[in-house]
Automatic annotation (TrEMBL):
Keywords: Signal. SUPFAM superfamilies: C-type lectin-like, vWA-like. GO terms for biological process: innate immune response. Residues 31-187 form the VWFA domain. InterPro entries: C-type_lectin-like, C-type_lectin-like/link_sf, CTDL_fold, VWF_A, vWFA_dom_sf. The keyword Ribonucleoprotein does not apply. It comes from Caenorhabditis angaria. This is VWFA domain-containing protein. The keyword Chaperone does not apply. It holds the Pfam family VWA. Residues 1-16 form the signal peptide. Residues 229-322 form the C-type lectin domain. It comes from the Eukaryota.
Length: 368
């Protein structure tokens, strides 16, 4: 009995935190193409180490291939390159994790007779693998990733342009330099140049893949700080509406949409900054969030599909709010009190702009 009460207390305090991105490797859902240098400097043992690392990254029960009853799976393609590039495995080659483990060494093969490796040709081939494996909208809702293993790199305007085009088309590029003096950072996406020799390398790659797998639907903004990605997305709406129509607009505009929560300072600040950055809002800023009280004194946050959670201790009330006694339905809006401060106030029927929220697509939340 006391254990049950203890668990209930824990789960109710957990539910009032800002959501973080899912981090369940067994439910990773991506399309990943490896671009592996097989020139002589890479060495056969280097190729074996790269293959072992690829297996290790998916060793947390990641479902490899497609066609599982749970759509959350990861396809793996492999391109090898020297002065030429070839498709060692297209995105449908590996049908399971065991298939990957048994066959990757053979698929990657041994080093070529070439001393040179031209990354540009490898990247171009990887693009072909993604284009053909994802043609006709196949898995267009899955994030595409290119992971490069290279023992040499010459930065040319051509390879910089190729990588820029890939990144602009929504592909994340992770680079793993396989020699000390190789600097692949001009090619990689932000935070995606990973040291091959670190004892943390596998975890670093897994964490990058989990972050890439955490993204927002079109037109929603991912809630982030410089060091942290939260598991929610917001959309600001400047057109004034009363709270109940605003709430309906959020749930009608996207599956699982609701009026935004502000469960910590990061989120409160992020929403304020996003409103300040939006050309449609004007000072003094005021906008509804998903906090309300039906008139009995208890404050609730909106959640997806009509669910609610009680307000916890973290709050951002302006001075003299909330009113001491609540007897009629009351709705919370942020009201700007100085150029840099904004806090919560209550209203009954006034109309304001409003902030909608939806949780991120991630390993805990598949978005079709
Ligand atoms: C690269 O591919 C072309 C066309 O398939 C071929 O003629 C050439 O010999 C290849 N070069 C190397 C170094 O493999
Ligand atoms: C707002 O704009 C500034 C300046 O462009 C930018 O640095 C900041 O990241 C933006 N903040 C948000 C939350 O979009
Ligand atoms: C107040 O009303 C809400 C429904 O709007 C209900 O869920 C909650 O339990 C009520 N709280 C109290 C203290 O009666
Ligand atoms: C917001 O706060 C300012 C400054 O305290 C106040 O003048 C204004 O009336 C408030 N706006 C609303 C809608 O209550």
């Amino acid at each position: 009995m006391s254990i049950l009460i203890f668990l209930l207390i824990i789960s109710s305090s957990v539910s009032a935190q800002e959501r973080l991105c899912g981090n369940d490797l067994s439910n990773l859902w991506l399309d990943v193409v490896y671009v592996i240098d097989n020139s002589i400097p890479m060495t056969n043992s280097g190729l074996i180490r790269a293959s072992a690392q690829i297996i290790s990254v998916f060793g947390g029960n990641t479902k490899i291939g497609s066609g599982f009853s749970d759509p959350r799976s990861t396809r793996v393609g492999i391109v090898t390159y020297n002065t030429n590039a070839s498709v060692a495995a297209d995105l449908n080659r590996f049908g399971s994790f065991n298939d990957l483990v048994s066959n990757i060494y053979g698929v990657v093969g041994s080093v070529s007779s070439s001393n040179q490796a031209i990354l540009d040709v490898g990247l171009t081939k990887a693009k072909e693998v993604l284009d053909s494996g994802r043609a006709n909208n196949v898995r267009s809702n899955y994030q595409p990733v290119i992971v490069i293993y290279a023992s040499q790199f010459v930065s040319t305007s051509s390879v910089l342009k190729t990588s820029e085009n890939l990144k602009n088309s929504g592909i994340t590029i992770i680079t793993i330099p396989f020699a000390k003096n190789v600097d692949l950072s001009p090619i990689s996406s932000p935070h995606s140049n990973i040291d091959a020799g670190g004892y943390q390398t596998v975890t670093d790659i897994q964490n990058r893949l989990l972050q890439i797998n955490c993204f927002c639907p079109n037109n929603y903004i991912h809630v982030k700080t410089s060091t942290k990605n939260y598991g929610s997305c917001i959309k600001v709406n400047s057109l004034a509406a009363a709270w109940i129509p605003a709430r309906l607009a959020c749930s009608a505009s996207i599956a699982g949409g609701y009026l935004a929560n502000e469960l910590n300072q990061d989120k409160h600040d992020f929403i304020f900054e996003t409103v300040q950055n939006s050309t449609n809002f004007h000072e003094p800023y005021s906008y509804f969030i998903g906090l309300s009280n039906s008139g009995n004194g208890t404050w609730f946050w909106e959640r997806a599909n009509g669910n609610k959670v009680a307000l916890s201790t973290q709050s951002f009330w302006n001075p003299n709010y909330p009113p001491q006694s609540i007897t009629t339905p009351s709705y919370v809006f942020n009201n700007q009190t100085s150029s840099s401060t904004i806090g919560w106030q209550t209203t009954g029927a006034s109309a304001f702009g409003y902030i909608c929220e939806v949780i991120t697509c991630d390993t805990d939340n598949y978005c079709s």
